[in-house]
Write a structure and sequence with these properties.
Elements: E1 2-11, H1 17-27, E2 31-36, E3 42-48, H2 50-62, E4 68-77, E5 85-87
Parallel strand pairs: 2-5
Antiparallel strand pairs: 1-3, 1-4, 2-3
Amino acid sequence: MACRHYYIAGQVQGVFFRASTYDKARSLCLTGWVRNIPDGRVEAVACGDEEQLTLLEGWFNQGPPMSKVDTVDIVGETEIHVNSFEIRY
């Protein structure tokens, strides 16, 4: 299992990005978390099979209908110990 750490920039807060990420990650059977951060970006960590992570990354580039994604930065691999995917506040 691989885990990746992401920062998504653009119009990604206040457009259901976290909730949509939660739904997408759970549909892909990924574990991890997503949260808004004060600088206006969304931060996420996701763990699962490489194929599912690739699908999530493709979805990040599109986002939910009201969002406008400018960049998706993968800042490296990480390890987390969670059993599901959650929204953090």
